[in-house]
Design brief:
Blueprint (H helix, E strand, L loop, with lengths): L7 E5 L4 H12 L3 E6 L2 H11 L3 E5 L5 H15 L4 E4 L14 H28 L3 E6 L12 H21 L4 E8 L18 H15 L8 H12 L10 E4 L11
Parallel strand pairs: 1-2, 1-4, 2-3, 4-5, 5-6, 6-7
Helix pairs in contact: 1-7, 3-4, 4-5
Bound molecules: nicotinamide-adenine-dinucleotide (NAD).
Nicotinamide-adenine-dinucleotide binds next to helix 1.
Length: 260
């Protein structure tokens, strides 16, 4: 028996990285999953690989119209929606004083507005299904500062704020809302060499490993599968008494400052 048998979950940003691993694990645990992304070719291929329990739709999380089409698509395919993982996100590095407004707003549009629109779009369906779960993806930098990440940190703090409010408002409807705060996770976001066909991947991974060996108490970067397992916990009955909270998955990075 799977931990998500009978559930129907929308996962955004599901074409690669953490979203891909969430979609894979959720299907393996018995859920039917609507994968949304803007990377249509990759998303379609993944849904095809996952079989009848998966569908892909083009879903730009910052567009209301896309949500208005994606939720009915999930219902048409699988009969209901009772879960959402707001995973889609983008990162832009820039010093505060040099960040153009357009760049700041572009990050807000995906990370913050996208999470808001997603929650708003699914609530009536989750309520109609008799309850459900929402898992938002915040970040380590929602809880701690990091240089050159003004726009990103602002949006991830906003995600935590929305998570708390949504959890309180939706608890009477049987809907639990939690947030994940990953540290450094080995995906194209943190390790862009993964997207460069000419890159020496082994060398790039070694450089990343070396960096996080020093920074993170557990001595390595995290794997997207490790975040997916937290998303599974927060989407399943294993977390039945848990709502409104941020969950850090960072190998101990936030625990403190090492002097060695
Ligand atoms: N990788 C990390 O170290 C890390 C750490 C903390 C938090 N996060 C968060 O985890 C989530 C997943 O990131 P990842 O590491 O898998 O990165 P990633 O770049 O590999 O994946 C992000 C996915 O989101 C999709 N996406 C981007 N804009 C979109 C939009 N407008 N609509 C729909 N999909 C869109 C991308 O196409 C991609 O498939 C993000 O919210 C990110 O901010 C990542």
């Amino acid at each position: 028996m799977g931990k998500l048998d009978g559930r129907v979950v929308i996962v955004t940003g599901a074409a690669r990285g953490q979203g891909e691993q969430e979609a894979r694990l959720f299907v393996a645990e018995g859920a039917r999953v609507l994968l949304g992304d803007v990377l249509d070719e990759q998303g379609e291929a993944l849904a095809k690989e996952l079989g009848d329990a998966a569908r892909y739709v083009h879903l730009d999380v910052g567009r209301e119209e896309d949500w208005a089409a994606a939720v009915p698509a999930a219902k048409d395919a699988f009969g209901k929606v009772d879960g959402l993982v707001n995973n889609a996100g983008i990162l832009r590095f820039n010093e505060l004083a040099g960040t153009p407004l357009e760049e700041y707003l572009a990050v807000v549009r995906v990370n913050q507005v996208g999470a808001f629109l997603g929650m708003r779009a699914v609530v009536p369906e989750l309520e109609a299904a008799g309850g459900g779960t929402i898992v938002n993806t915040a970040s380590y930098v929602a809880l701690s500062g990091m240089t050159f990440l003004t726009s990103y940190a602002a949006t991830k703090a906003a995600v935590l704020g929305m998570t708390r409010v949504a959890a309180m408002e939706l608890a009477p409807k049987g809907i639990r809302v939690n947030a994940m705060c990953p540290g450094a996770i080995d995906t194209p976001m943190t390790n862009p060499a993964q997207l460069d066909p000419g890159a020496d991947l082994a060398e790039a991974s070694e450089a990343v490993d070396e960096l996080y060996k020093k920074l993170v108490p557990l001595g390595r970067i995290g794997r997207p599968e490790e975040v997916a397992r937290l998303a599974l916990f927060l989407s399943s009955d294993d977390s039945s008494y848990v709502t409104g909270q941020p969950f850090v998955v960072d190998g101990g990075w936030l625990a403190g400052v090492s002097v060695f």
